[in-house]
Amino acid sequence: MYLNSIYVSPIGLTFGLCMATMHLHAAVQTTAYIAIHNTPHYAKFQAMPYANINAPKGGYISTSSLGTFDNLNSMNGKGSSTEGINYLFDTLMDSSLDEAGVLYPLLAEKVTFDPKKTNFVIFHLSPKARFSNGTAVTAEDVKFTFDTIQSKANLGFQMYLSDLAKTEVLSPTQVKMTFKSEHNPDMPLILARIAIYSKADWKNKDYTKVTLQPILGSGPYLIDQIDAGRSIRYKRNPNYWGKDLAVNRGRYNFDQMKFVYYRSPEIAFEGFKSGQYSFYQEKNARNWVAEYLFPAVKSGLVQKYTAKIETPALTQSLVFNTRKAPFNDIHFRQALTYAYDFEWINKALLYGQNIRLQSYFQNSELAATGAPSAKELDILKPYLHQLNPLQRQGTLSNWKYPVSDASGFNRQNLLIARSILLKSGYQFKNAQLVDRKGNPIQIEFLIHQDGIQRTLLPYIRNLKKLGIQTTIRQVDTPQYTERMRRLDFQMTPMNMPQSLTPGAEQAQMWGSQAADEIGNYNYSGIKNPVVDQLIQQIIRAPSREQLVLHTRALDRVLRAGYYQILTYGNDQNWYAYWNMYRQPDVKPKLSLGLEYWWSDSTQTEKVAHYLKNR
């Protein structure tokens, strides 16, 4: 083995590491899992409980995506990345779909770190780990991956790894990551879930450019066919090195996976109905209630499926760009929040299928509810003096968004919004709202999907009643992506996922540094020292209890800052598929677990016959 270019015998190195570990800190541990604020339940299992190890291999599954693609390198932040590209690559460890904050072996068979003082982690690679061309995955490949991300990836990704001080190769199968912080329990989870690239494969490639040239990975699938910008098909690698690992038994059963691209959700849905692809996640309440009446549904060849997944609901919101006037005024943003009429939109347009989001972590224990508890107040009190008085008031309140009578007029809330604007120095001239300098208020919504206009127009009508001129600017997906990267918008609808184990990604979403970084995710432009400090407390939380409490505190501050208008969501996920798939009896709690489904050959033939002869 080689350690800092000096040869050390395996026995000597092992003994030395053990003695150093015992001397420096008794809590350093080497385990075949990572469990942060949790206890692993499946460490000794030969397969995950939500897997069918006897599931047959074969068949195909296809699904849709919106827009287009031009880049197979999803890490450099250039162009439009490609759906399914993650299946080409393995990570160091893999998530449990039943346990928050728990990872099990993949490329790394074990890991060494101190859970009480996490300032480094050592990953021990499996000697069996192989890229798809048969070459070994080594510590040099891991170091290359992280060094490249830190120097060449998009700024958002670099920020995600901002606490990584250095990556060192200890031996061909051991790599050590040292952190800048004295204690960052979230970092092992972050590092373990990043795709590992081959150093040799990138020798003659430019990492910073868009590419449709296949990239060497170690994952379960290979690229089979690319129709640039329209579709991409993957094929299962029969020689996949990791197929017998506990996390992979009964998994990756389809011989082929295909992603088909469409311009809009409406066109994509028509494509599903006609059998152009086989699996669809439905996000339109009207479709779910009223549009699944076509013959294939009635004959049982298309199945509807509802899954309740125990993770935070997708955060759907209208985002204010607070970098620009008048959105840099919290009172203006508060007034616009009163103009949003969820009750009427849900009744008239969404068939009553949605709930009003009241939290950035809805449907989880992380969501702040009611007035702050005594423990939450202990966290918040040192920061309250730094908050705007309106934000401080909202942080300490039993937060609820305004409720209308669902009549469609929203009269009472619009009167409140008008009063807020007048008290804040805005005026009305010729029925038009003007700012303190007499300039008319004009708003542009930036969108890239047709369907969203349906729920935006009622809100725009209410803004017009407040004297606000509002327009919708619809652009294609590549232009929308570029404008959002460069933060060139006033307001936009957005979906943002959240995790049961929030960590460093919160800094990318809400942190001051991210507010000015092109390609990062703080679209609202939040620059609030209280938000920054709470995020750091979340990242360094010593226990699950403290993680939950600090996340609730952050939730309260974000809501009360009126940086976004949380709109609507669902505590269920809706799916439809052509009836040729089966799934295990035991369902995972934190995911649909589609990778553990398999193809039913008899049903596949029935579907093929129907599509051919209809």
UniProtKB/TrEMBL annotation:
Keywords: Signal. One of its GO terms (cellular component) is outer membrane-bounded periplasmic space. InterPro entries: Peptide/Ni-bd, SBP_5, SBP_5_dom. Gene3D superfamilies: Dipeptide-binding Protein, Domain 3, Periplasmic binding protein-like II. Pfam families: SBP_bac_5 (PF00496). It comes from the Bacteria. Residues 103-514 form the Solute-binding protein family domain. GO terms for biological process: microcin transport; peptide transport. The keyword ATP-binding does not apply. GO terms for molecular function: peptide transmembrane transporter activity. The keyword Transcription regulation does not apply. This is ABC transporter substrate-binding protein.
